[in-house]
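Hi R.,

Here's the chain you asked about this morning:
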Amino acid sequence: MVHDIDVLWWFCAYEGCEHKAKTNNSITLHKANKHNIGVKWKQCADCDYKAKHTGDLNKHIKKHHS
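And here is the predicted structure, written out as tokens:
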């Protein structure tokens, strides 16, 4: 069994969120995925659609603009 002894926890600073993680990178990913904090949006060149992930933008373009 693994115990979380001497673990430095990182906490999400978003109001009302109680998420915690063992790495700062995990918190950064959590904030982007759950709270849209620090997201680098990918904008469709043909309409107002935007996506967090390039793959989602590519699917949109293929479905709506091809």
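One quick note: Helices lie at 24-35, 54-65.

Cheers,
M.
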